[in-house]
Amino acid sequence: MQTVSIRHTQSYDPDILYRSVCEHFEALILAADLSADMHVLLKPNLLAGRDPSLGVTTHPALIQAVALRLRELGVKHITLADSPGGLYTPASLRKVYSACKLNPLREILTLNEDVTSGERDGFSILTPVLQADYLINLPKLKTHGLTVMSASVKNLFGCIPGLRKPELHCVYPTIEAFTALLLDLSAAVKPHLTLVDAVDCMEGNGPGGGKVRPMGYTLCSRDVYATDEIAAKLMALQPSMAPTIRLARKRGLCDPQAIQQIGDNLIPANPPFILPDSIITKERFFSTRGLFHHFFGRKRTYPVILADKCIGCGLCGESCPKHLIDIMSKKAVIARKGCISCFCCQEMCPVHAIDVVRKRAW
Ligand code: SF4
Ligand code: SF4
Hints:
This protein is α/β, with parallel strands linked by helices. It has helices at 14-27, 60-72, 90-99, 127-131, 152-155, 164-171, 175-189, 224-235, 243-250, 282-285, 288-295, 315-319, 344-348, and strands at residues 2-8, 39-44, 77-80, 110-111, 117-120, 123-126, 134-138, 140-144, 148-150, 193-203, 211-221, 259-263, 300-305, 325-328, 331-334, 354-359.
């Protein structure tokens, strides 16, 4: 039986969050897992340096509530670590911490600046993740242009250091291969606990360029796959549409019938979450435009630069695994051939200057 604790968490008010975190810890009897000398690692979603109000990153108030509860339970060593998109250097990490409003948390935890990594099960993994005695996965619930949803399993991709992530997109260019990689990685990392920030979620062109969708929940479980099942339910997303859920079920890692929901009643999103433009749903497929694209060979989605919005920052080029993006006359230009539609470029763009179109294969 996989248990998922569900709590209404209406806002990022510190008292409300603290209460929810305490209730999750009590419901799952987590105090028994912890001891004073343990090194506990918090792994939030810090995709990029964005203000918490944009719904891109795990909210600092939730991280603070978890750290406070851990401290009360006697835990002395708490570290926060993630590898955001783009470069992975102490300077780039400090920038992200500052933009994500994490600096005030330095009083109760350590913000990691160690950019070394080691190996586990064939993966290059951040050193603090490898050294942790207890790993708490703190994803943000969002839509995702490649994997449809980003929650528990997808968040662990940030355990891979810096530009090794785009390299893996090249080695595993199809969604099937990339999904298998994500599940292998989550088996290698094996978080002890997952607590999902679903207070303000993201819909539309997530994980970086969508709109905030307030849902008012936190979800918590020892099981990453069960948490994703419940997160998909909250988004009112067909589980079969999320490749990580599909594969987890196929591998026998999760049985939706065996999930025990405890705590508050979960009310799925109504209307369902808006999906990214890159995802071809049944409705989009059967539209006049969708059928036209299908029969005339325009089946794939590709990124296009909106030149009037582009500020020439180059972040998209830094994260493109195929090195297809150059800055010319202070605007990004995508080379036409070789794109694997991973949308790493789109998720890093700070000003939503990358759109999605369906085209013939380049
Ligand atoms: S151009 Fe964008 S979508 Fe295409 S390979 Fe590069 S990062 Fe991926
Ligand atoms: S498309 Fe976005 S990320 Fe790329 S250079 Fe322009 S503003 Fe920067």
